[in-house]
Design goal:
about 160 residues; mainly beta; 4-stranded antiparallel β-sheet; 2 helices; 8 strands; about 10% helix; elongated
Length: about 160
Amino acid sequence: MKRIALGCLAFGALALTAQAEEIGSVDTVFKLLGPDNKIVVEAFDDPKIDGVTCYISRSRTGGIKGGLGLAEDTSDASIACRQVGPINIKEKFKDGEEVFTERRSLLFKKMQVVRFMDEARNTLIYLVYSDRVIEGSPKNSVTAVPIMPWGAAAPAKTAP
C-alpha cells in the first residue's frame, strides 16, 4: 500500500512539471549510423505562472546509442525565459521548486529547471542544471523575468 501511495505522489509531482515543445535543432556532428549529434531548442510555459515562457538549448547525442535512447547527453544547457503575456501567479510555490525536468541518460542523469522569486526586485529567476545520482555538474545557466505590467505599450514613433 505504501508503494502505491509513493507512486501516486511521484506521478503527481511529475504532472506539475512543464512539457517542452521542440522549436528547432541544428546538427553539430555527422554520424554515419543513427541520428547526428544536435543542439536542440525547446520551449515550455511555466505551469504555475501564466505569461512566462522559457527557452532551453541543449545538446542531444546521436549515433546508434543516441537513436536508441541509451546515450548520456552532456550537461551543457542554456536558458532564456521571457514574459509573453500578463503574469499571473496561479498558486504559491517554494523557492527552488522544479518547473521542468528531462532525463539526460537512461537512468542516472537529468536536467532540471528550478524557479526562485526575488521579492525585493519583483523578479522571477529560473536556473537550469544537470544532476546525477552520484555526482552533479557545476554547468548551469540562469535567467531573470521582471514582473512588469502587460498591455498598452507606448505608441510607436512614425517617420517624418
